[in-house]
Amino acid sequence: MRVAVDFEECLKDSPRFRAALEDVEGDVTELEQKLDKLVKLCIAMIDTGKAFCLANKQFIHGIQDLAQYSSKDALVETSLTKFSDSLQEMINYHTILFDQTQRSIKAQLQTFVKEDIRKFKDAKKQFEKVSEEKENALAKNAQVPRTKQHEVEEATNILTATRKCFRHIALDYVLQINVLQSKRRSEILKSMLSFMYAHLAFFHQGYDLFSELGPYMKDLGAQLERLAVDAVREKKEMEHKHSTIQQKDFASDDPLLEYNVDAASGVVMEGYLFKRASNAFKTWNRRWFSIQNNQLVYQKKFKDNPTVVVEDLRLCTVKHCEDIERRFCFEVVSPTKSCILQADSEKLRQAWIKAVQASIATAYREKGDSPEVEGKPSPSRGSPETGAEPKEKLLKGESSLQRVQSIPGNAVCCDCGLADPRWASINLGITLCIECSGIHRSLGVHFSKVRSLTLDSWEPELLKLMCELGNEVINRVYEANLEKTGVKKPQPGSQRQEREEYIRAKYVEKRFVERCPAASGGKPRPRSQGPQRHSGSPEGRAEEEEGPPTAKEQMAAALRVRSNDSGFQHSREQLASAVSASTLYEPEAERPEAAASASRDARPDVPGLQLYLASFQKSLPGMAEALAHGADVNWVNAAEGRSTPLIQAVLGGSLVTCEFLLQNGANVNLQDSKGRGPLHHATVLGHTGQVCLFLKRGANQHAKDEEGKDPLSVAIEAANADIVTLLRLARMNEEMRESEGLYGQPGDETYQDIFRDFSQMASNNPEKLNRFQPSDVQKP
């Protein structure tokens, strides 16, 4: 039992003992408040649930009445009766759940509060009483004159008796405290465990019930498809009429609140606003403002030439302005200046803010769809992986399940071979059946992150990651030595215990992974990194004759490629010139000597170096193999400026490689020796897709490098409108969430929509994010 208050200190009655009592008493008081609150919430939840069941019963009675009314239609009557019976059974399950909740939460916690905490309070009262008597006895004993022997003896006897009584009461009080501190853990957890088991039983019962009803519902759906053709056509006609009438009603309500980003005239919105002058007097003037041609302009008179406030809306942000005396103000911020405007009402202010935000979003798409330089577009700097994915994979309406299952080996579970898997491990890049996915989930997210292919929403970069790996690639790594160990792979009908032992041995213990060559004396590793050659080709025959290269040979070759990669170094020099800051991105460790030094320094950690090199080479199989051999995902290469695999993935230009490292625990804010993290490097290189990804994954955009520059200042120097706007939007969204106390919330809809559009373009149409053509960059 964990001792909250020491018994020895109790006998001493030291200040330390009194302080410990004070802490415990305050903690118990707070515990009682929390438990009372939880019990009240539980009671409210049960009452609400019972009201829901009552309303549901009335609804079911309505279904039954409708079924009786439809007695002439056998299909309707049979279906409604079957559905009402199933819903009635679910109400019974709900009732059982509420009863179990009342017993597990309400009853158990109330008993704990009324009995155990009350005992504590009673013991506290006795302790305080005897403590006061002890103090009085001590004071009286101290005040007795030495000449009055009779009074001295009487005071001494009273003090002795009081001290004895105090020790007994204090020891009992400390015992009660320690017992309470120990018991409350078991009581709370036992109550919650019972509550969770009740939910488990409830959902199992519901699943079994609707599993039986599923075939009938599927058959009924097939019948309804034939009956729904006319209904769909009529519904579309009604929706068209409804939309037309609704737009007319909205327009007639207040025409000034209307904006249209697709207006033929090019004017998104226009109207009068007060503008605060930038002079010393800060005067306010009423001007006619309009949003047109991707600009915010105003004019005093109709014949006056418009004055441009913001030349490019992609470089600005808009937000509420509440720190001035005037009402209905908002601020438009660009990289060079700020403009404070005032609307006539709150509705107008909101309309103007939404119009500016919508225009910003439209400006992204228009600039991304129209190439800035005629001719064949160059590969995207936002995500250089352009033509790797077939076009049929991007067809609208194709589900995540279909795309992932189309990868070789993904049509069956990676661990047991069951057909048509509906679950996936996103950090491993494999598909799983429901049984194996439950075992993967029990391993913990540091080993496997499980997600449904049909129930969960999939971000484009994550979906692309799943399509880049697959069961065949991962099993070549994690089952390389399976036959040598003599362990049999589970089958679809295998017991759960057998599957669990196999999966734990495969992914946690990594028992079937080929031993790392550094530890096995140069033993060759499986050829899973880099492109696969068929045995019929000349390269394949040569490889079979000479044998597979060792890991040391592979890394030496990779380092030679890095040291001789003039194209990569030249592109970095070009970018440094375009940014007009040649010292911001000087080539590092691109020399053969540095590469050799990196090989020498990193030799004790072969998997870490393999991950480091594979990240730059965009080899996901090689990265997966390195992680299987125990590579640290945040491995630091001291010979190359403390660069990490994630930074190398940025330099390699692969969005999906960055996503793979992040899903496997890479630190998005780990900096190199010059204080630059992945977000810094992606901004310098102009990789818009990677910037969007890092911001979504919580990158710190306020971090500064050794020159005192944050990513936003770098993007402004490079005049990269996409990255400037992404960083501005992320910063504004962060400020809004902090001011409104929305910690942990994703942000407003405009912010989410814009980042969603960038993610789609970076993964599916990366050429739209290209902002610089080779001719735009001046050679140094």
UniProtKB/TrEMBL annotation:
Entry GO terms, CC: endosome membrane; plasma membrane; ruffle
Pfam families: Ank_2, ArfGap, BAR_3, PH
Membrane topology designation: Peripheral membrane protein
Basic and acidic residues bias (residue ranges): 366-375
Subcellular location: Cell membrane; Endosome membrane
Residues of the Arf-GAP domain: 398-520
Database matches in InterPro entries: ACAP1/2/3-like, AH/BAR_dom_sf, Ankyrin_rpt, Ankyrin_rpt-contain_sf, ARFGAP/RecO, ArfGAP_dom, ArfGAP_dom_sf, BAR_dom
Entries under Gene3D superfamilies matching the protein: Ankyrin repeat-containing domain, Arf GTPase activating protein, Arfaptin homology (AH) domain/BAR domain, Pleckstrin-homology domain (PH domain)/Phosphotyrosine-binding domain (PTB)
Activity regulation summary: GAP activity stimulated by phosphatidylinositol 4,5-bisphosphate (PIP2) and phosphatidic acid.
Keywords: ANK repeat, Cell membrane, Coiled coil, Endosome, GTPase activation, Membrane, Metal-binding, Repeat, Zinc, Zinc-finger
ANK-type repeats, residues: 641-673, 674-706
PANTHER family cross-referenced by the UniProt entry: ARF-GAP WITH COILED-COIL, ANK REPEAT AND PH DOMAIN-CONTAINING PROTEIN 2, CENTAURIN/ARF
Protein name per its UniProtKB record: Arf-GAP with coiled-coil, ANK repeat and PH domain-containing protein
Lineage start: Eukaryota, Metazoa, Chordata, Craniata, Vertebrata
